[in-house]
C-alpha cells in the first residue's frame, strides 16, 4: 500500500472561515482529530485578533489541547510577530502564505507578491534560527478570482524563489476552488519535474466539485501530501454559502478503497465530523458524512 500524508486543516483553515466558536469547542475538535490516526494537523494561526477574531484564542486553545506525540502539528503565521508567538507556543512546523496572483496578494495584505516574498525570506531565516521549519503556501496557484488563470510559469518561479530562500516545504492552495485536473497537470507537473525531491502538499477546495478528481490527478504526478478539512469545514471566501475545503472523510474514504494507506481510522474520523457539525451548528458538505461509507463500518 502506498502511504499518503493527509494534513487535517479543520481546526485552523476550517474554523477560521466559520463564525467564531468558543475555545472549548476548538479544543474538543482538536482532541478528537488527534485520535483519528491522522499524521498531521494544522492546529491554529497566530494572527492579529482584530484581523481574524476566530483565532484570537490560539494560545489558549493550543495550551489546552492534548498533544499526540504521533501527530505533527503546524501553525500558520502572517508575519514576524506571529512567527514569534508560534515558536514561543512550541510549534516547530510553521506555515506562511503568499499569493501567486499579485492582485489577490495586494487585496489580502496590501503588498505585491514580490514584496511578500522578500518578507518571507526574512521569516524563513527567523524560523530556522529558532529551530522551526518553514512551509510556504502559494495561494491562488490554480486560479485567482480577480485575474483568472495564473500563468503556471509564475507559480513555478515563486517555487524557485522560496526554495532558494530556504523553504522546507511548499504547498499550493486552491484558494477559491478553481482547480481542475487540467490545471493540476499544468501547474504541478513542471514543478515536480524541476524539484522532484521537494516536499509538495496540495490544498484543494471542492467549490466546483473537482477536488477529488484533482487529488487523483496529483497522485498520478507523484504528489503524496494533501490537505483536507473535517466535514469540509470552512466555506469559500469569495462565494458565500459555497463549499470550500475538500472533506477529509471523502478523501480518506476514496483513497483507502483504492488501496492507499492514510493511517486514518474512518470511523473515528466520522465521529469527529459529527462533532464538527455540532460545533458550527449546521450540516457540513461532506457526502460521506451524510450518506456513510459505501460499506458500513
Ligand atoms: Mg482552504
TrEMBL record:
GO terms for molecular function: lyase activity. Residues 1-20 are annotated as: Disordered. Keywords: Lyase, Metal-binding. Residues 4-270 form the Pyruvate carboxyltransferase domain. Coiled coil: none annotated. InterPro entries: Aldolase_TIM (IPR013785), HMGL (IPR043594), PYR_CT (IPR000891). Belongs to the HMG-CoA lyase family. This is Hydroxymethylglutaryl-CoA lyase. It comes from Dactylosporangium vinaceum. The lineage of its organism: Bacteria, Bacillati, Actinomycetota, Actinomycetes, Micromonosporales.
